[in-house]
Specification:
Strand content of chain B: 15-25%
Distance between the termini of chain A: 29 Å
Largest sheet of chain B: 11 strands, mixed
Strand order of the largest sheet of chain A: 1-2
CATH architecture of chain A: Orthogonal Bundle
Number of domains of chain B: 5
Oligomer: heterodimer
Structural class of chain B: alpha+beta
CATH topology of chain A: Arc Repressor Mutant, subunit A
Strand content of chain A: 5-15%
Number of helices of chain A: 5
Helix content of chain B: 40-55%
Number of strands of chain A: 2
């Protein structure tokens, strides 16, 4: 078991940030998740997780340029840190290992 | 699309910004806005607005909310901690100034606390009545032609009836009447009991809870008696007394109720209530004018109005009623008006008050005086703080360079003054407790008037007062410091105009001393006037005379018993005691039947004049006549002869002239020299003295020994043989006179105390200033000394400016006081002492001596220091 524990929602958020690459800011992440997974995400839930992940060092962020929409407020773009990428890879590997360990006949019912 | 509708509500964003962690605020707000804008296009404005509300609420969670010790607030908090720390350090470093400030504020604040608790009690009078907001008292304004109108707390019985009968829209009318009283006979024992007559509505208007009996009927039937718990115990020794009989003057009363004891903060106080129906039966027989429109001295009317009753229309109805009734009166107008219950305890009325009240003017004067004393302590703080600015300006300079705003510097100094003021509150509290005890003992009526008990509300008010005083005292120093220019301070102290505040400081000192001097001079003049009243030559002697109140007993047995006592050398009798403010009047006519006049009178026996050593100008004393003989002789004073022009104003020729006294002829047999029938603040009026072998009222006994306790015991023994029910009421004439002037004594005491405080506070303030000045000028003094200045020179140099201020204060204060007494106070007194130079200057000299001791000691200390020490420490 790795020392890095990642919650399900945290994992999804990190993956989405990775998908969006340079365009991962709050609303974009929510919309991406809604489109791909068909689940409702509130700003509150998302933002809390983003900040938590940032604090843990999995994510980093920087401000974009101010535009006229959004009440003139700048966007904050999130991206994966090296550490974050490593953690994601680790999680994926763990999952793969788990999948591989399942006897084949169980899934082929 | 129109603009503003597309924006989320501002309070929502403000709420968000308030709670959101500042680091996250911008981008999340941007997200919120973007989502809002998207939603407006997709689902319309309404859904978008709901959506953003939901989002903002969902964002309100631990990860997003700023921490409680978050950025900005942490800043404020640590600044405050810093203010406290610097305040504490500066207080500890300048312990003398701290002590002066705290002591001055504590002393003055304790008086403030006293005032607050006193006034709080007065304001909570009658708060226990359930209908207190709707209860009104009917008051009477009576105006006789050519005289100013008089406000009276009482009304006529007729007015009470008429209001009840003719005016609609009044929930309840109740009448009460004072003067019920006598010896209550219960079985064999006789106990004096007083009370009020009250009609059956009384218990509906006022909330005096009945322990026993039915409030609806307790005061309905004639001869019903409602006792308080206390008086029930007094009469019966128990409270379970419903249905018992009590006898007053051969009439039997039935106890129909027992009330809970009357709260102290009740304006109406009584031992018992007797049904008004009783007086309705009794009075019409004994007093023909019971129902007269102008018989308004004994009776009181209270109303309960329905909610929202229009007072103007009610007043109009009262006016109408008065107009109808007044048409039958000659030379007199009587008007009725309403007074709310909560204005009774502090009011400017009035004659015939039923309970204790406090005069509004007196309260305002007391509040003003207290305020002045507190202000004086505040001045000390202001003065000393600004004087010390030299030492603290560097601190302020550095704070400003680092980035402190004006507002923050002000905040710092205000914090400091509030801290000092709260500290002073702690010390003032024990002083307040002590003063409260003194205040109660100042006059017996004070303890009956108020409790001044502590409660939470009161304590909160105390703290509020302390904070307010702190704010006031700290305001000017804070303003001063916040204006300091950091560049100047840091460049070098010498380049600054530090003494810019000098003129203000000087004027504050002058104001302090002006008030102190006015206070002390007022006290001294007031005291000398008061002493003057007591030792005033009344025109007869009061020395060693005691007056014994007969309390309804037959005089002759008592006279016989007393005259057997060796301690008593002479005895006389009189209806009233003169010079105390008591009076009786009678109608006098001389030759002209149209010229009748209401003249003061007394009725005495033949021993009265010799005993009091009245001086006869002409004629003789009364001769003894038996009780039944027709009394046809009068003795008059000089002014009476002048009033009627009898015998060409010659006392000798007036002897034998005949007056008509109350419709009967009486011969003038003697003329006495004018003496003071009234208290001496009123001028002497004409008066007559009539004769009776048994005038009733008082015995006047001349005491021959100095051993008063033994004499009292003998007097009491003699009294007990005659009257077992009542206590002996004997007082020295001189004490009674002192009693008559006790309001003045009270005033002198209060103002004297305040003047002591004012002088104390301004003296310690001056002391602080002197210490400060000598400290800052120590080098100058040393150099002068090196150059050859003597001690005397130096003291003169250092103290002259202070003495100049004192003399300036005296030049302002003394004329003000003098003219205040001359033009405002003493014109109310027909006979008074003139204001001597001694009284006027004594206070000033005293203050000057105190100041001299303080200034002298400090400057001498400075002048005596070795110049080598001060000059070498560079």
């Amino acid at each position: 078991m790795s020392k890095h524990h990642l919650g399900e929602f945290e994992e999804i958020v990190m993956l989405t940030v990775a998908i969006l690459h340079d365009e991962a800011y709050g609303i974009a992440i929510i919309e991406e998740m809604e489109n791909r997974l068909g689940r409702k995400v509130s700003i509150g839930a998302l933002q809390t997780v983003l900040r938590r992940l940032e604090k843990k060092g999995y994510l980093n962020s920087q401000f974009g340029e101010a535009t006229k929409i959004r009440g003139g407020k700048r966007k904050r773009y999130f991206f994966l840190t090296m550490y974050g990428k490593k953690v994601l890879a680790e999680v994926k590997e763990q999952r793969t290992n788990l999948w591989n360990a399942i006897p084949e006949f169980i899934l082929n019912n | 699309m129109n603009g503003h509708k597309l924006k989320p509500s501002r309070w929502l964003l403000r709420f968000f910004r308030w709670y959101c962690h500042p680091d996250y605020q911008e981008d999340i707000e941007g997200d919120l806005m973007e989502r809002f804008e998207n939603k407006v296009e997709e689902k319309g404005i309404k859904a978008a607005k709901w959506g953003i509300i939901k989002d903002v609420i969902q964002l309100f969670r631990p990860g997003i909310i700023r921490s409680l010790e978050g950025n900005y607030q942490l800043n404020q908090y640590s600044m405050f901690r810093n203010y406290f720390k610097t305040a504490y350090r500066s207080m500890a470093r300048n312990s003398l100034f701290t002590v002066i400030n705290v002591v001055g504020l504590a002393v003055s604040m304790s008086v403030g606390l006293l005032m607050i608790s006193f006034i709080s009690d007065l304001l909570s009078y009658d708060n226990f009545h359930e209908k207190k907001d709707r209860i009104y008292r009917v008051i009477t304004t009576s105006q006789n032609t050519d005289r100013p109108p008089v406000d009276l707390a009482s009304t006529s019985v007729r007015a009470g009836y008429k209001i009840k009968e003719t005016i609609s829209g009044i929930e309840e009318v109740t009448q009460l009447r004072r003067g019920f009283g006598g010896d209550a006979e219960v079985g064999e024992s006789k106990i004096p009991l007083g009370g009020l007559w009250a009609d059956n509505s009384f218990l509906k208007v006022f909330s005096y809870p009945l322990l026993q009996g039915d409030p609806a009927t307790a005061l309905l039937e004639p001869y019903s008696l409602v006792l308080t718990e206390k008086s029930a115990k007094k009469l019966f020794g128990k409270t379970d007394v419903l249905g018992e009989m009590v006898k007053f003057d051969d009439a039997n009363y039935i106890v129909t109720g027992v009330l809970q004891d009357i709260p102290k903060l009740s304006y109406i106080k009584f031992e018992s209530l007797v049904s008004f129906a009783t007086v309705e039966i009794q009075m019409p027989d004994s007093e023909g004018d019971f129902l007269g429109w102008s018989t308004f001295t004994e009776n009181y009317t209270y109303l309960v109005l329905p909610k929202n009753r229009d007072l103007q229309t009610l007043q109009a109805s009262l006016d109408q009623l008065c107009a109808a009734e007044n048409s039958a009166l000659e030379n007199q107008k009587i008007n009725l008006s309403l007074q709310p219950l909560d204005q009774i305890s502090i009011s400017n009325i009035q004659a015939n008050e039923l309970g204790h009240t406090m005069d509004l003017t007196a309260i305002l004067v007391l509040v003003a005086l207290t305020f002045i004393v507190i202000l004086s302590a505040g001045f000390n703080y202001t003065n000393l703080s600004i004087a010390r600015s030299l030492k603290r300006s560097r601190e302020v300079g550095i704070r400003k360079v680092i980035g402190a705003l004006k507002r923050q510097v002000m905040m710092q100094f205000i914090t400091e003054s509030v801290m000092i003021s709260l500290l002073a509150l702690v010390f003032s509290f024990p002083i307040f407790l002590f003063l409260r005890g003194q205040f109660f003992s100042i006059h017996p009526s004070v303890a009956e008037l108020v409790y001044m008990d502590l409660n939470t509300g009161l304590i909160l008010r105390f703290i509020a007062l302390a904070i307010l005083i702190g704010l006031m005292a700290g305001f000017f120093p804070a303003l001063f410091f916040s204006k300091i220019k950091s560049l100047q301070v840091l460049k070098g102290v010498s380049s600054m105009h530090f003494f810019g505040g000098v003129n203000m400081r000087k004027s504050l000192i002058v104001i302090q001393y002006v008030f102190s001097l006015i206070f002390i001079t007022t006290t001294i003049i007031g005291y000398s006037q008061y002493k003057g009243f007591l030792t005033f030559d009344l025109g007869f002697t009061t020395e060693n005379i005691v007056n014994i109140k007969l309390q309804g007993n037959k005089a002759d047995i008592l006279v016989k018993k007393l005259s057997e006592l060796p301690e008593v050398s002479e005895i006389s009798q009189s209806r009233i005691i003169t010079s105390l403010g008591m009076q009786q009047t009678t109608q006098i006519i001389y030759n002209d039947p149209n010229d009748s006049s209401s003249i003061c009178k007394n009725t005495v026996d033949e021993h009265y004049f010799p005993l009091h050593k009245h001086e006869f100008l002409a004629g003789r004393n009364f001769r003894h006549r038996s009780e039944n003989a027709q009394d046809s002789e009068v003795i008059v004073n000089e002014l009476l002869i002048k009033r009627f022009g009898i015998g060409d104003n010659d006392p000798k020729k007036a002897i034998g002239e005949v007056l008509t006294v109350d419709g009967k002829k009486a011969v003038i047999v003697g003329v006495v020299k004018d003496f003071h029938y009234q208290i001496v603040q009123l001028s002497i009026q004409p008066f007559i003295i009539r004769y009776s072998a048994n005038p009733g009222g008082y015995l006047n006994a001349k005491i021959a020994t100095k051993d008063w306790p033994a004499t009292y015991t003998s007097l009491e023994r003699a009294w007990k043989e005659v009257d077992n029910v009542h206590q002996l009421d004997v007082k020295f004439y001189d004490d009674q006179i002192e009693q008559a002037y006790s309001p003045y004594a009270m005033m002198v005491k209060v103002i004297g105390f305040l003047s002591f405080l004012a002088i104390f506070i301004s003296s310690i303030g001056l002391f602080g200033m002197v210490v400060f000045t000598t400290e800052t000028r120590l080098k100058e003094i040393s150099i002068r000394k090196v150059l050859g200045a003597g001690d005397g020179n130096l003291i003169f140099l250092l103290s002259k400016s202070f003495f100049f201020l004192l003399i300036l204060s005296a030049l302002i204060a003394l004329p003000i006081t003098y003219f205040f007494f001359k033009k405002v106070v003493l014109i109310n007194f027909a006979y008074h002492q003139s204001i001597g130079l001694v009284e006027l200057l004594a206070g000033f000299v005293g203050v000057l001596i105190i100041a001299f001791l303080m200034i002298g000691s400090q400057t001498l200390k400075a002048a005596r220091t070795n110049p080598a020490q001060t000059l070498s420490d560079e």
